[in-house]
């Protein structure tokens, strides 16, 4: 397997979460829940796993109308996502080159 491939991040729910967080600074829990889509409890479970690895930070803020939960990638989480995405790109490139070789051969 490619050195940058991260089996922990490759779980579809986790990979989707970090991909949605990558272009943002802080993202609201409700946005992630609706974008995936998943239940509050399933998302919370995945976020807890990501936080335990040090890949995300979860913050609860008070605001008008109640509390909101915000999530962001940590520098380590951002780096792991970049490495994993690059590994996936290399895997795809290898498959394409092998396929092109079969077509030529």
Description of the molecule:
The protein has a 3-stranded antiparallel sheet with strand order 1-3-2. Strand 2 and strand 3 (66-73) form a beta hairpin. It has 105 residues and is α+β, with helices and mostly antiparallel strands. It is built from 4 helices and 3 strands. The longest helix has 30 residues, at 75-104. It has helices spanning 12-21, 29-35, 40-52, 75-104; strands at residues 27-28, 56-63, 66-73.
- The gross shape turns out to be elongated
Q: Terminal Cα separation, in Å?
A: 26 Å
Q: What fraction of the residues are assigned to beta strands by DSSP? A: 15-25%
Total count of strands: 3
Overall pLDDT score: 93
**Strand pairing plus helix content: what structural class?**
alpha+beta
Q: Percentage of helical residues?
A: 55-70%
- Helix count, per DSSP? 4
Radius of gyration: 17 Å
Largest sheet: 3 strands, antiparallel
Strand order of the largest sheet: 1-3-2
Which secondary structure elements does this structure contain, and how are they paired or packed?
Blueprint: H1 12-21, E1 27-28, H2 29-35, H3 40-52, E2 56-63, E3 66-73, H4 75-104
Antiparallel strand pairs: 1-3, 2-3
Provide a brief overview of the structure:
With 105 residues, the protein is α+β, with helices and mostly antiparallel strands.
From the structure above, extract its key features.
4 helices, 3-stranded antiparallel β-sheet, elongated, alpha+beta, 105 residues
